[in-house]
Amino acid sequence: MSLAAICQVFSMQVGNSNAKIVLLCIAEHVRDGNIQGATTSGWPAISKIASRCEISERSVQRAIRYLEDKGLIEAESRKREDGSTTSNNYRLLFDVKSLKNKAGLSDGVGRQSVGGGCHTVRGGVTHSQGGGDTQSPLEPVIEPVKEPKNQKLALDGLETKQKAITKIERMILDVYDKDRGNLQKVVERRWPGSKGSNDLKARIKEDDEHHRPEFWSDFFKAARDNPTWNGDNSRGWRASLAWLSNRSNFDKVVQRWANTEL
Asked: pTM for this one?
């Protein structure tokens, strides 16, 4: 693991929250030494990155493409002897080593420099020559980075994650009420804490795409226009928001939606 690479990523304004945590995960595997252009030591698989970052594999793949487009990493495909594909090899394309030397970051025991100032570790506390202590000798002091404005409801530091998810859930309920057509109406007094609400929150957490009202509007329109779910069938059965939020049912609608766009 390279402390210099991780410090550099923390200080960067990447412009996308998922891309930043994926870049941190990649930096975690970088070997110290010649950091620029260094390869990851473990070639982490997409599934491993997704697990460590607690996001979906699709989000990891989008984040990697985003980082490549930004010129921050280079992903090189690798193949086994039998020709099958294995995990990618990643290269950092920003110069961490020069930052390390310039800022005075040291791998030595007992001394550490963060942001250009020298700090000495004594008794588990980092003491600065310029006065003042930091809480941990192992973690860099990081200036807050302003998140870029975008159209999705960001899970930012101004709100707890739970409050942000609740805000997104409220948006989805409003979109459903507007675009549901003949689908079942939500009984709002019964919705909070229900299985449907918990399933919907799980879908929200899976992908940044699920934070956008446009996604849900198209999703609900795909469901309402299909006789299987809109009541125009032999049973007269209509899908509900709780049914649509279930993992397997959600995938069915997304798959049917994708097929109609081909």
From this structure: 0.42
